[in-house]
UniProtKB/TrEMBL annotation:
One of its GO terms (biological process) is rRNA 5'-end processing. One of its GO terms (cellular component) is cytosol. HAMAP family: Nuclease_YqgF. Keywords: Cytoplasm, Hydrolase, Nuclease, Ribosome biogenesis. Transmembrane segments: none annotated. InterPro entries: RNaseH-like_sf, YqgF, YqgF/RNaseH-like_dom, YqgF/RNaseH-like_dom_sf. It comes from Paenibacillus flagellatus. This is Putative pre-16S rRNA nuclease. One of its GO terms (molecular function) is hydrolase activity, acting on ester bonds. Residues 2-102 form the YqgF/RNase H-like domain.
Length: 139
């Protein structure tokens, strides 16, 4: 069984996190600057090989009333193309509060605004993945 990769799919970046080999903890590893979809998928393919990934969790931004807006539709389309390209299972995970949570953690840690901008996406990816991993261990 491989690792799980968590992705925070944004307009300009994709935050990337991976689980440990046991599927217990998530660690942010990279922020991919989005270019062309093929380039993004090529980079993800390299990371899948490097970290021996067997499944993905993509953050799905929902509105607070649980509906899916344009942002969520984009993430769902990305998840479908990811599944097709990688031939690996892709799960969508409600990420409503992950970026807020990442932001708060960084502010509490007194990380400068400039530095926060550089790590927020991979931290959000790690939070999405960690929440997913925690939900799996409760079964």
């Amino acid at each position: 069984m491989g690792r799980t990769m968590g992705l925070d799919y944004g307009d300009k970046t994709i935050g990337v996190a991976v689980s440990d080999a046991f599927g217990w903890t998530a660690q942010g590893i990279e922020v991919i600057r989005r270019r062309k979809p093929e380039d993004d998928l090529d980079r993800l393919r390299e990371l899948v090989r490097e970290y021996e990934v067997s499944e993905f969790v993509v953050g799905l931004p929902k509105n607070m009333n649980n509906t899916i807006g344009p942002r969520g539709e984009l993430c769902m389309a990305f998840a479908r193309s990811l599944e097709e390209a990688m031939q690996l299972p892709v799960k969508l995970w409600d990420e409503r509060l992950s970026t807020v949570s990442a932001q708060r953690t960084l502010i509490e840690a007194d990380v400068s605004r400039k530095k926060r901008k550089q790590v927020i996406d991979k931290m959000a990816a790690a939070i999405i993945l960690q929440n997913y991993l925690d939900s799996q261990s409760k079964r």
